[in-house]
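Team,

Forwarding the record for the chain on the shared tracking sheet. I've put the sequence and predicted structure together so nobody has to dig through attachments.
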Amino acid sequence: MSLFDLSGKVAIVTGSSRGIGRAIAERFAEHGARVVISSRKAADCDEVVAAIDGRHGPGTSIAVPANISSREDLQRLVDTTLEVFGKVDILVCNAASNRHYGPMSTLGDDAFRKILENNVIANHWLIQLVAPGMCRARDGSIIVLSSIAGLRGQSMIGAYGISKAADMQLVRNLAVEFGPSNVRVNSIAPGVIRTRFAQTLVEDESVRAQVEDHSPLRRFGEPDDVAGVAVFLASAAGRYVAGQTLVVDGGGSIA
């Protein structure tokens, strides 16, 4: 058996209608998992399901639209997954938001609160819903998408960075809590990945110059660069990794 085989596994991936989330869902399916596609817009989810099922066969994936800011939506997401597939083996908390691009001094309370609710509290809610089943099964992998923005000071995405630093600590706490039940909790901290979500950064000439001039790999990341790490953490290849944040930034944070 391949260390990266996900046959028989069921994965929920939030924010999987595009970008990093979609790449993770597609690679999970490629490695044998059945995948639940979830984001706010039903049509976008359906498009991804059609693409995945077209490649890997009907029933490989289902669409369950959900707004991560709604506990009711997240409950429905998990309930539907259990109804259709019977279990949840892998959870990827990828959906996030950033409602402020600018210095902390111009950040309003409502925007700050929403960033923390969507990027930290919503992850906590969803993990609370799936972790008991994983613990009973004594098997599971939970992956939270963090960011290198949570590893260093930020001048323009400070609130986002705060939320992503909190995600790293959330992962450490839950790894300690769930580890005795053989449930692994880890996070991935990407650098600037070429997605619509990071479009502002990709188009920022100062960011581009920093990446292209100083990053060892001299380029922005692509969604598949992150998806491969997610497959590792979700599979037997990552079975002894717990409570870690794996930085995927082309070496930019060490240069």
